Input
Amino acid sequence: MAKDSTFNFKEYYYPSVSESDWLDYRWQLSNRITNLDCLHNFLKIDVKDFTHLKTFEDGLNLSITPYYLSLINPEDEFDPIKLQCVPSPLEFQDDEGMEDPLGEESLMNVKNVIHKYPDRILLLVTNQCPVYCRHCFRRNKWGNSPETKMDIQSLIEYIKKNKEIKEVIISGGEPLLLPSFHLESILKELRKIDQIEVIRIASRVPVVLPQRIDEEILQILKKYSPIWFVTHFNHPEEITELSMKGCRKLIENGITVLNQSVLLKGINDDSKTLEKLFRNLIKIGVKPYYLFQCDPAKGVKHFRTSVFKGIEIIKELNGKLSGIAVPKFAIDLQGGGKVNLEPNSIVAINENSIVVKNFQGKIYEYKI
Output
């Protein structure tokens, strides 16, 4: 295979590491950058910012795979990959954000099972990720403890008691961080339940740890097909030779791959960047599915744009891209689910908020 540009990074910083190790997800996970001092060996961090961040280091939760770190241009202060994974002092200057912006805690009738919509449930199978994205709306659940052990029996009983449940979304954290046998045990039990029609996996592995898409995981997913795989590319620079290969492997094994992006200030909040991203995703067979307004989680205020910025971008893209390349632009309401921001979903526009109607016809006010 042709060399990926990330190999230049490997050869400079990890000259003694073999190519086979670099391509092994276990090596990538074992060598994650998890503290500021280590990160400082790779990137220039402003002295003032570094000193500020050190005061919060005990609760910082930092994790970056060497692969994802290799995508950063160290000379660019505003590199879009850097902004997504390197902590900023701005995270600790947010007095408006919420610990649980989607109201998920109130929707858990069973531990780690979120039942927001009548026909589907979401499983939080782990609280860990290969890379902790700084814009994550589940930041309050990050942790270094062993992966969550899903109570399979309680899950099965809950599903069988709620006959309207037809779809299960396996999420986290990063579900593909589970040991393969553990992930397979969840899929196996779900496939035994006749009422379950759709299984989705929400994973950022193709973006931050594409080495995990190996033969072992492919055979598991193929065994319990059909599986809908929803990943999370936010910027064109995240589409590399290795990430393309991971997505193509999934598709070649009969797995449908969709993409959910988040609108992030200073990273992708312009139509030119998103047009390039969505065109490149379509090229590799990945359908742009959703573009989400960044949720008002605590610590992410500096990433949030105006809702109208997203509407403007989608309007521009509609004139440049075909329908298969334009995602839905949506907000996620606290306890109210997703609302696509289309003309018929906006009921009223106020000075500091918009009033929207959700999938149940309920009215919500959303601060802009």
